[in-house]
Every structure is written in structure tokens, then in C-alpha cells.
């Protein structure tokens, strides 16, 4: 069995893929997305409105970041200019922007690296990155000194979801380090022993190796070609 751990709000695509491919997959939403609100949200809005004119490229790293950014820009429609470029990391993120009235550029290599390569080749200028607390930092590191970031949401984990993991063997999809850390620190040892993990990037694997000492667990950790649902699912199918 394959276990999807993504928040319910961003699981629509992988649920559809599993149904189309008739893959046995249990959707155990380990966390939910919590957007910043109140004073913190207001401070972000004010800061973006004040400085948006200094950015050439506005980058959305996830569906959640696109929702937050779209709300902000629709509240202040005159803050943008026609020379600014919107970038989305993938099709699902792009669709949210389109649904809210914004066109965006998505690289053929639908990943943060794809955006990095595209901007460095064709779109010079300062970059504004909308992301969550669990950002993989690829974009920030690539554009260091020439970017600002808007951290607009975080993941809230639910300990009760661990009860929904099967006692039998399973392949668990991990899209960020925080999710692996949560499972690893809270799942009883005998349930970890018969689980394999597909990680969305080598960076996550590097972080995982810092907290896992058990060689048997490390030997059952695999890395997908990319974080995209299609690639994560294909890698999991190869393991089963």
C-alpha cells in the first residue's frame, strides 16, 4: 500500500492519479495548512505593498502560496505593473493563479530548479518568493542577495493521524522534512520497521540522515526524481 501524507487541501491531484491508475493508496493527511493571520498577516501585506515595485519576478512555490498571494494582489490591484513576471512551480499552482486572474510562467522542468534556470537565463532582476515555513530553500539559496521571501503559511501536524497508518508494510510519500520528522519521532518503533519512504528531494534525504541512525530504516529510504505527484507515485510503485 502507498500512503499519501500531504495536507488535504493540496492532495486533489494525487488522489485523482491514484484513482486513474487504480493504485491502492491511503490518504493520511498528517498536517493541515495554516495561513498567517491577524497582525502578522497585516504586516506582510503592508511590507509587500510598500516594496512590490522593486521586484521584477514574483515566484510562487506552492498552491498555498499562490492562494495567499492572489488574495493580497486582488485586494491591491494597482500595486503591480505590466513588466513584472509571475512564476509558478507547477501546473496546480499555475491553475490557482489563473483562477484568481493572474497569468504565470511555469518552466518545462516543473520544479524550483526549473524556475532558477529560467530566471537566470531570461529574466534578470530582483525576486520575491512566496513560500511556507517548510520551504526547501532552493530558490532562496540560488538568488541569495537578490531576493526577498514572504513566508505566509505553516504546517500544523495532527498526532491523531498516526493511528490511520496501517500496521502492515507500506510505502509512505514524504514531501517535506517536517513530515518525516513528525512520523519518525512519534511512530512506535515496530511500526517503523515495515515502512519504506519516498522522499521528494535529496535535500530532504540529507536532513533525514541527520536524525536517523538505524541503518535498516535508512536502507528503505528512496528519493523521487522530483517532488511532483506523478514522480512520487511512480517511485513508490517501483518499490512495492
Structure in a nutshell:
The chain has 240 residues and is α/β, with parallel strands linked by helices. The protein contains 11 helices and 10 strands.
Low-confidence stretches: none
Rounded mean pLDDT is: 93
Q: Which strand order do you get reading across the main beta sheet? A: 2-1-8-9-10
The helix count comes to 11
Class inferred from helices and paired strands: alpha/beta
Helix content: 40-55%
**Principal-axes shape call:** elongated
The helix-strand sequence is: EHEEHEHEHHEHEEHHEHHEH
Strand fraction: 15-25%
Q: If you compute it from the alpha carbons, what radius of gyration comes out, rounded to the nearest whole angstrom?
A: 19 Å
Please give the alpha-carbon distance between the first and last residues.
Answer: 8 Å
Total E-strand runs: 10
Instruction: Please outline the major beta sheet.
Output: 5 strands, parallel
Entry keywords:
240 residues; 10 strands; 5-stranded parallel sheet; 42% helix; 5-stranded mixed sheet; alpha/beta
Describe the structure.
Helices cover 42% and strands 20% of the residues. The strands form 2 sheets. The chain has a 5-stranded parallel β-sheet, with helices on both faces. A 5-stranded mixed β-sheet has the order 3-7-6-4-5. The chain is α/β, with parallel strands linked by helices and 240 residues long. The model has no long low-confidence stretch (mean pLDDT 93). It has helices at residues 12-21, 38-51, 63-75, 91-99, 112-122, 138-142, 177-186, 189-192, 202-211, 215-218, 229-239, and strands at residues 2-4, 25-27, 31-35, 57-60, 85-88, 127-132, 147-157, 170-174, 195-199, 221-223.
Amino acid at each position: 500500500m502507498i500512503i499519501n501524507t500531504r495536507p488535504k487541501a493540496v492532495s486533489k491531484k494525487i488522489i485523482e492519479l491514484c484513482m486513474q491508475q487504480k493504485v491502492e493508496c491511503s490518504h493520511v493527511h498528517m498536517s493541515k495548512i495554516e495561513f498567517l493571520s491577524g497582525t502578522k498577516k497585516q504586516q506582510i501585506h503592508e511590507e509587500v505593498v510598500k516594496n512590490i515595485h522593486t521586484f521584477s519576478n514574483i515566484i510562487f512555490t506552492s498552491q498555498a502560496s499562490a492562494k495567499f498571494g492572489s488574495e493580497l494582489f486582488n485586494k491591491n490591484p494597482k500595486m503591480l505593473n505590466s513588466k513584472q513576471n509571475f512564476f509558478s512551480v507547477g501546473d496546480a499552482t499555475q491553475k490557482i493563479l489563473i483562477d484568481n486572474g493572474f497569468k504565470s510562467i511555469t518552466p518545462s522542468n516543473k520544479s524550483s530548479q526549473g524556475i532558477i534556470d529560467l530566471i537566470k537565463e531570461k529574466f534578470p532582476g530582483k525576486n520575491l518568493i512566496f513560500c511556507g515555513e517548510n520551504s526547501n530553500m532552493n530558490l532562496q539559496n540560488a538568488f541569495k542577495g537578490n531576493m526577498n521571501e514572504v513566508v505566509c503559511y505553516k504546517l500544523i501536524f495532527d498526532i491523531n493521524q498516526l493511528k490511520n497508518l496501517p500496521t502492515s508494510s507500506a510505502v509512505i510519500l514524504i514531501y517535506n522534512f517536517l513530515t518525516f520528522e513528525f512520523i519518525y519521532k512519534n511512530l512506535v518503533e515496530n511500526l517503523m520497521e515495515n515502512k519504506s519512504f519516498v522522499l521528494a528531494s535529496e535535500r530532504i534525504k540529507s536532513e533525514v540522515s541527520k536524525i536517523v541512525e538505524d541503518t535498516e530504516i535508512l536502507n528503505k529510504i528512496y528519493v523521487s526524481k522530483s517532488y511532483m505527484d506523478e514522480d512520487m507515485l511512480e517511485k513508490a510503485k517501483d518499490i512495492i
